[in-house]
Design the sequence.
């Protein structure tokens, strides 16, 4: 069967008619169900377009000299009408073809999205081998369109992880490298990724670089990267949240140490003589907590990123996106923590506030290290030694 028979179209030089016939046949010849038939259809489509291009160039009339052109009002009006009709038809055809291409790619994209959600799909590249056997990608436009849509899905997947979705698994360097070999993201101009978060892009491309360095002939892949990569960016999955019990123990140690320091100061005769009226006694010991919170806030703003005892225990205070905290973060954090002893102090007037304090502590038991005070202040407490171990494992 010749190309016109495969397309079920009479021989023509109309490229739009050929594309419409190709789109009609695609509905009946699914590339995932009939790969050989699709390949024949695709070859017929390419040959028909080439035939149309040759016919159009052969039939193109020479332009008449300027002085011989018919420029009567009637002729000019007919030109205007013809141009308007052609433009409208072309626009409708482009929209129809775009929608048809999206419909064809949709099942494949859904399969990829479902695979990303599985742990094995995000970690092991062999589960993506089905993309290597897709005759659909013989069409350059389909290949480019699918590459762009798949990259958007990966960005959304990684953004969900950054947002705290613990059910998802980060895409491994091996999977990203395998997909990049097929869709050539790393060889695209930077403008192709406009609108995506820069940090997220650097995280993805640094993982591709990680995998590329382990490939024996990665250096001869060809194509120069156009994106200026920064040093390897840490992925959110590398950061380990601190154990709540360890956090509580560190705070108790700090408060006790602060009390011992104050007691030692008042044991100095000169201090006791001049400032004995400031010695905390009984309920005044609760004043140690706001003093400690102020001191801890200053320490968290410093390069230490933690008060002394938490720092010794390997804890660090960071933002939700794992950046150094700002004054706004530490003030909101201190305000939340200050409310708890304040409610206990006010409870002596039988306001029942101790129940609220117990409720906060009870809820925190089920938040897996991301406690209420962390959520309120936009911070996270990181177990730094465990985080460093994860980073070393990932980077070899």
Sequence:
């Amino acid at each position: 069967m010749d190309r016109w028979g495969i397309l079920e179209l009479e021989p023509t030089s109309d490229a739009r008619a050929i594309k419409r016939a190709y789109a009609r046949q695609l509905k009946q010849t699914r590339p995932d169900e009939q790969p050989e038939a699709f390949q024949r259809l695709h070859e017929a489509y390419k040959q028909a377009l080439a035939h149309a291009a040759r016919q159009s160039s052969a039939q193109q009339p020479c332009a008449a000299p300027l002085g011989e052109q018919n420029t009567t009002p009637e002729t000019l009006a007919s030109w205007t009408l013809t141009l308007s009709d052609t433009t409208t038809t072309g626009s409708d055809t482009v929209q129809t073809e775009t929608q048809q291409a999206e419909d064809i790619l949709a099942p494949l994209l859904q399969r990829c999205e479902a695979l990303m959600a599985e742990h094995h799909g995000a970690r092991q590249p062999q589960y993506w081998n089905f993309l290597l056997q897709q005759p659909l990608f013989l069409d350059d436009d389909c290949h480019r369109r699918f590459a762009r849509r798949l990259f958007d899905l990966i960005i959304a997947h990684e953004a969900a992880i950054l947002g705290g979705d613990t059910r998802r698994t980060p895409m491994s360097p091996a999977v990203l490298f395998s997909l990049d070999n097929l869709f050539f993201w790393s060889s695209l101009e930077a403008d192709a990724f406009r609108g995506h978060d820069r940090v997220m892009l650097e995280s993805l491309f640094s993982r591709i670089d990680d995998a590329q360095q382990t490939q024996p002939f990665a250096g001869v892949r060809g194509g120069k990267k156009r994106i200026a990569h920064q040093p390897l960016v840490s992925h959110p999955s590398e950061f380990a949240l601190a154990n709540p019990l360890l956090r509580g123990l560190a705070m108790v140690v700090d408060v006790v140490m602060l009390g011992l320091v104050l007691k030692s100061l008042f044991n100095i005769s000169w201090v006791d003589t001049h400032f004995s009226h400031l010695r905390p006694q009984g309920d005044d010991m609760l004043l140690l907590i706001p003093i400690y919170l102020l001191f801890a806030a200053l320490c968290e703003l410093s390069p230490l990123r933690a008060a002394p005892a938490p720092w010794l225990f390997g804890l660090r205070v960071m933002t939700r996106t794992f950046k150094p905290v700002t004054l706004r973060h530490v003030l909101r954090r201190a305000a939340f923590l200050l409310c708890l002893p304040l409610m206990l102090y006010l409870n002596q007037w039988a306001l029942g506030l101790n129940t609220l304090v117990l409720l906060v502590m009870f809820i925190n038991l089920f938040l897996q290290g991301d406690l209420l005070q962390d959520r309120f202040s936009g911070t996270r407490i990181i177990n730094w030694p465990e985080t460093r171990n994860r980073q070393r494992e990932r980077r070899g």
User: Anything to note?
Assistant: The CA atoms of residues 174 and 324 lie 30 Å apart. The chain has three domains: 1-57, 102-236, 239-395. The two ends are 57 Å apart (CA to CA).
